[in-house]
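Blackboard transcription, Thursday session:
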Amino acid sequence: MSCEPELEREDLCEAHEVDFRSVEEAKASLPDMGYVAELFKAMGESTRLSILYLLWKGRWCVHDLATILDSSVSNVSHHLRLLRAMRLVKATKEGRKVVYSLDDDHVEALMSEAFKHAGHS
Amino acid sequence: MSCEPELEREDLCEAHEVDFRSVEEAKASLPDMGYVAELFKAMGESTRLSILYLLWKGRWCVHDLATILDSSVSNVSHHLRLLRAMRLVKATKEGRKVVYSLDDDHVEALMSEAFKHAGHS
DNA sequence: TGTATGTATGATCATATATTCAAATATCGT
DNA sequence: ACGATATTTGAATATATGATCATACATACA
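(Written on the board underneath:)
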């Protein structure tokens, strides 16, 4: 059914302590990395990570985010678009402002975990 | 002491419900994102994330990692170098092989958290 | 000591990404 | 309706990054 070529024994390190079966099993057990990789990638850029951090602690409009981050409104808006597309943040229109907030408990848990150890360099 | 220019009131959204003080405080409270962003960036690439996942579950030499990931030894080795430089994985020479394993509990905790929700798209 | 195996490295290339700029859109107050 | 405020968008650009290739290095074994 699968179009994958069969794994051959020659593809393995000879005399490796783990056998053919282990490599096959490891390959089969590998979950899809797509979503998780995208998530980490979104969080792996300092401007976006800062935005997520700020929204973790409160709600902010675009202009103030840009001020706090010493960045341009345009740049912040571009990053917010990405975060919105990934449903990590949500936008609420309030008058002529758009106020952003976190939209994913998942992200809070990851940040909590990540910043817990921060400064262990 | 700081070379930062003083924040001016004009830099703020007028009539924002949060006041000048909040923006100043938010700016001051913002932790350094450097390390955490680097960490997420390292994990935000599917080949590297897969490597970390595999090493989370066991120990593997470079050749077998490449086989499991359908990638080249060279490519995997380059990624391992990055992960080594960040002290996320460690290398152990065993004969002519180099066996890699995780070198950071932190990463395990993050992966555990991340994959817990995977497939909630 | 030579050869095969296993890994690391540097250069190159194609692509992806962050940022800036200019301009468009939308909302409020006068 | 007009001007000011607030945000979004697309294009252009510079930089970063992942993959590949060729090659160097290092170890085991004959």
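Lecturer's comment: Residues 34-116 of chain B form a domain with the Arc Repressor Mutant, subunit A fold (CATH 1.10.10.10).
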